[in-house]
Amino acid sequence: RRRRKKPVRVYMDGCFDMMHYGHCNALRQAQALGDQLVVGVVSDHEITANKGPPVIPLHERMLMVGAVKWVDEVIPDAPYAITEEFMNKLFTEYNIDYIIHGDDPCLLPDGTDAYALAKKAGRYKQIKRTEGVSSTDIVGRMLLCVRERSLGGSHNHASLQRQFSHGHSQKVNDVGFGTGTRISHFLPTSRRIVQFSNGKGPGPNARIVYIDGAFDLFHAGHVEITTFNISLVVHGTVAEYMDFSKEESNPYAVPMAMGIYKQLNSPLDITTSTIIKRIVSNHEAY
Ligand code: CTP
């Protein structure tokens, strides 16, 4: 990072619906192009108008983006396309030097490039989109869960698939909404893992907090609970499956017996099932 000189401020926008490591990798690369990263999270209304309703409402998407270590500031209700007016606001009010987006084409419903103005102004920079992960694929996998759990009966998945394919329609075919969607196409090489770590181990007197969980579909409820500063084995009150009645089905039997287990009041009432229900009701409404 530069010292003394005026910091380079970069801006990345996006929907960040059902945030995944592709989004995190985009934020990591964007931050590396400057000193400070400002992220604009697109409003529910703008997403609905451009690609169908988001699964995750704005305030939860803000919590997720804001929790990423490479993000310095979060702007709510960002527009889907960079308009002249908004671009000037970024330059004058937010002191933004560059506008960043992944190298995938980002087209508006009328077929024009959402970043055309920023490109013309010479203030656009690109990062590499992470292959093998997308919200479309995640929705596909969740619909498989719905089918398997028969939570909500049988549905025509085609329109949901379409709803999440906006602008990346060419990708829908290779996503494959079959059983293969359970297989991750992402390769976490040791180089990639190092990119995501801060390279520092804990100090000799560090308090080390342990929390476990499946973290299948990481959501705002997870982000909020990790802000507690408790050096115990902790678990939230809200969870997908909580049957502590039988000793053998209680995953926390050991820490409980050792007296180091504490239950936290979950700050948000979200589980993966909540999100699956949102997808199903969006599907029914559209
Ligand atoms: N992004 C990325 N790699 C992915 C997915 C997204 O680099 N696999 C980047 C996008 O290029 C963009 C930012 O993350 O700069 C925010 O993306 P977003 O607006 O949320 O939408 P999508 O590109 O539609 O992401 P997805 O296909 O996962 O819905």
TrEMBL record:
Pathway: Phospholipid metabolism; phosphatidylethanolamine biosynthesis; phosphatidylethanolamine from ethanolamine: step 2/3; Lipid metabolism. GO terms for biological process: phosphatidylethanolamine biosynthetic process. GO terms for cellular component: cytoplasm. This is ethanolamine-phosphate cytidylyltransferase. Residues 11-140 form the Cytidyltransferase-like domain. Its EC number is 2.7.7.14. GO terms for molecular function: ethanolamine-phosphate cytidylyltransferase activity. The keyword Lipid metabolism applies. Keywords: Lipid biosynthesis, Lipid metabolism, Nucleotidyltransferase, Phospholipid biosynthesis, Phospholipid metabolism, Transferase.
